[in-house]
Write a structure and sequence with these properties.
The complex is a heterodimer of chains A (257) and B (249). Chain A has 257 residues and is of the alpha/beta class. In chain A, 35% of the residues lie in helices and 25% in strands. In chain A, α3 crosses α4 and α5 packs parallel to α6. Chain B has eight helices and no strands. The chains are: A alpha/beta (257), B mainly alpha (249).
Chain lengths: 257, 249
């Protein structure tokens, strides 16, 4: 379980998270929604111990990671598989080496075993033929698929963390990524997806945490989210045409779905 | 400010300490040496050649009026080996390699590649900083030796073919200044400069914040700070080395 207790975090003078508290089970599928700069990615980084809170506690499986040394966080980080925004593939390595990276770091496998494992992973996302390509030769969708497979190469995570996995992708590729994410979470592992696309959030998650300027405006299920009267949430929901965009759209005859 | 300095010292120390601590990233080290050394070779050759020729030309113009043109070889040799060679090569190295290090690491920060390394349990200092420190420690002294040789050759061309000095006398003057004191004085500096350039550039790169503008700032800061530190360190080292090697000022 992930527990945030009154967490505050600032980048210099800018406070990004203000007294944020929540708990998430490893089996849950959660979408963290909000606008740019509202602290969504910061939450993922705090979960992994890549950032330290200024105030408050973060517990992973009951273990306080708020002040743990970098070396002691390795075991905590192995509980998660993270895909950063745009994939974060290593530019200097080709697709095969990117996927093999964690295998070389974590396990002592022979080159043949690494090759087999990488092929199997890339085959799963139809990228077996792209092994020798460099990241700059990949499309956005291919980038994300490689990144997802790389995050899975060496570890058996309890939970997946995705930082805006479909941002910048066309609808077809975004759909492929969403299906892949769903497919992976079917194996009993939960996920946290950070996104500002409500459409993707509805496809992938059952619980929704809505952030606004570093505070949680909403934490609950879909039905409650749709019924919410919070104006910021209504703006997000307007993407789905579930709710009118504003008073003027009611007058224009826009219908609820 | 104090916090930044602390982080810089810590990074510099850890970058150096990791040279003797496992794991060693040999492939990254070779790649960095290739980028820093082979990639800078032609630029250093060109800069050094023209510096040597210009210096020889200036000395020729100044010394001919005093009837002291026979000293061209000696002055070119001493100034290139002790001072101009190490400093000029370091400035070229900082401009090309230092800026490259800062921008590469900066874009890795912005693209979450450094975070990815940390998630995979890889120490970014060992993986990214140490290979760059090592490559600078090896390649800058090597480039300085090549640069010094080419500068002296440039000086030779002007001294012999323009100022019409004796070729034998020029080379015997150069041999005369190739003593232990001068060579030692000129060969310690590149190690210090290389270490400074690598640490400053890596620190600036890894401290990048704020998108493309932040990357531009980090790269500019890396080059400017390296240039200033090279000049300041050169003065301090010159003072120390002259004292230690027994030169009277």
């Amino acid at each position: 379980m992930i527990e945030f207790e009154h967490v505050r975090f600032s980048y210099g003078a800018r406070e990004v998270l203000r007294d944020v508290s929540f708990s998430i089970d490893f089996q849950e599928t959660v979408a963290i929604l909000g606008g740019s700069g509202d602290g969504k990615t910061t939450i993922l980084k705090l979960i992994l111990g890549l950032l330290r809170p200024d105030f408050g506690r973060i517990r992973i499986d009951g273990e306080d990671i708020s002040s743990k040394a970098e070396d002691d966080l390795r075991e905590i980080r192995m509980k998660f598989s993270i895909v950063f925004q745009e994939g974060a593939l290593f530019d200097s390595l080709n697709v095969k080496e990117n996927v093999a990276f964690a295998l070389r770091e974590y396990r002592s496998l022979s080159e043949e075993e690494i090759d087999q494992k990488v092929r199997a992973l890339l085959k799963r996302v139809d990228l077996e033929d792209a092994m020798e390509l460099t990241p700059e030769e990949l499309s956005g969708g291919m980038h994300r698929r490689v990144a997802i497979m790389r995050s899975l190469a060496a570890i058996e995570p309890k939970m997946f963390l995705y930082d805006e996995p479909t941002t910048g992708l066309d609808p077809v590729n975004a759909d492929i990524i969403c299906k892949l994410i769903l497919d992976l979470s079917k194996e009993g592992r939960g996920l946290i997806i950070v996104t500002h696309k409500i459409f993707d959030a509805f496809k992938l998650a059952h619980r929704y945490i809505f952030l606004k300027e570093g505070t949680i405006l909403f934490d609950g299920r879909r039905e409650k989210l749709i019924d919410s009267s919070i104006p910021e949430i209504q703006i997000f929901l307007s993407e789905l045409n579930l709710k009118p965009k504003g008073p003027s759209s009611i007058d224009s005859g826009e219908k609820y779905v | 400010m104090i916090g930044d300095l602390q982080e810089f010292y810590l990074l510099s120390w850890r970058g150096l300490l990791s040279l003797i601590r496992k794991p060693f990233y040999f492939k990254d080290m070779i790649e960095q040496m290739d980028y820093a050394g082979t990639g800078s070779f032609v630029i250093v050759l060109l800069v050094s050649l023209f510096i040597g020729m210009a210096l020889s030309l200036q000395l020729s113009a100044e010394l001919s009026g005093l009837g002291l043109k026979m000293y061209i070889g000696k002055i070119v040799g001493v100034s290139i080996i002790r001072e101009i060679g190490p400093v000029m090569t370091a400035l070229v190295f900082a401009g090309r390699v230092g800026s490259g290090m800062a921008s590469e690491l900066g874009s890795m920060i912005l693209g979450h590649q450094v975070d990815t390394l940390r998630v995979f349990g890889v120490d970014p200092v060992k993986k990214l900083v140490t290979p760059r420190v090592l490559s600078s420690l090896i390649m800058l002294p090597a480039l300085t030796i090549v640069g010094d040789a080419v500068s002296i050759l440039g000086g030779y061309y002007i001294a012999v073919f323009v100022s019409l000095q004796s070729s034998t006398f020029y080379w015997s003057s150069i041999q005369g200044v190739l003593n232990v004191e001068n060579v030692l004085s000129g060969s310690i500096k590149p190690f210090i400069f290389g270490y400074l350039i690598a640490c400053i550039s890596c620190y600036m790169g890894l401290s990048t914040k704020g998108g493309a503008l932040g990357l531009r700032r980090a790269t500019t800061r890396a080059v400017v700070a390296s240039f200033i530190m090279i000049i300041v360190a050169d003065f301090i080292l010159t003072r120390i080395l002259l004292y230690v090697l027994g030169f009277s000022v």
